[in-house]
């Protein structure tokens, strides 16, 4: 109903229907009240429209902020891709460092001393994952291990490149992947191109993969990526140590039932030794990789 017509319609009818369906005539003295009700109705009607406009403006403001935030994320993602483009480095799966912590939490809840052998094993597994992650991080000279992480779509499933082709390093600037099934050459070419940011070509079941030499600036960026990755894995080792030490400290203080202080101190010393050994192995692997990256060609 048009708000401007509301008073005139009331004046014309001068009657309304009550709760029991009885028609009641309005007296002329009630006309000022009609005008007041009509004005109130128009205000409420316009207020509802204004509220809708405000909600729409708020939505538009959020759309703009979301769009800007998405653009910033896209720019950040592009810069990160450029940093690791020539390195063919993959992001570190940080969640793998901490997926075994549930067992340690159970030991804490039961007030049991941690097993030093299990603690040492966890640390060694973290070091091994770090070493494995370095294989696809290119140094000054490329290696066949650069292709270990490549996954190929073959026969309706994803499989490793080594299972569908033989990769050979022909020269420091060229590698070839000879497909066991020539029909997979196109899939291999696409996988290498997309996952390693290279420009291979396929012909007669053989994929030729040019390996451009990387500049000093790019190698310095790769070295920075290596340092950050190594520190993240060190944090994983330290977290395993912290979980174990939180329990052994209670034992040394005599707060664990049926656990002697001497046993708790012995376990504490073994955990410390395992931590130092794991950190040393990780640092040695990181240093060797750094030297390989920054080696003079």
What does this structure look like?
Helix content is 58%, strand content 12%. By secondary structure, the chain is an alpha+beta fold. The protein has 3 domains: 3-61; 94-135 and 215-294, Topoisomerase I, Chain A, domain 4, CATH 1.10.132; 144-210, Gyrase A, domain 2 (2-Layer Sandwich). Strand 7 and strand 8 (206-210) form a beta hairpin. Helix 1 runs antiparallel to helix 2 and helix 4 runs parallel beside helix 7 (261-294). Keywords: Protein biosynthesis. InterPro entries: Ribosome_recyc_fac, Ribosome_recyc_fac_dom, RRF_sf. It comes from Fistulifera solaris.
Write the layout of secondary structure elements.
Layout (H helix, E strand, L loop, with lengths): L5 H8 L1 E3 L5 E3 L5 H53 L17 H9 L6 H18 L17 E4 L2 E4 L4 E7 L2 E6 L5 H12 L4 E3 L2 E5 L5 H37 L8 H34 L3
Antiparallel strand pairs: 1-2, 3-4, 5-6, 6-8, 7-8
Helix pairs in contact: 1-2, 3-6, 4-6, 4-7, 6-7
Which terms summarize this structure?
Ribosome recycling factor domain-containing protein; 3 domains; RRF_sf; 4-stranded antiparallel β-sheet; two-stranded antiparallel sheet; 297 residues; Ribosome_recyc_fac; Gyrase A, domain 2; 7 helices; Topoisomerase I, Chain A, domain 4; protein biosynthesis; Ribosome_recyc_fac_dom; alpha+beta
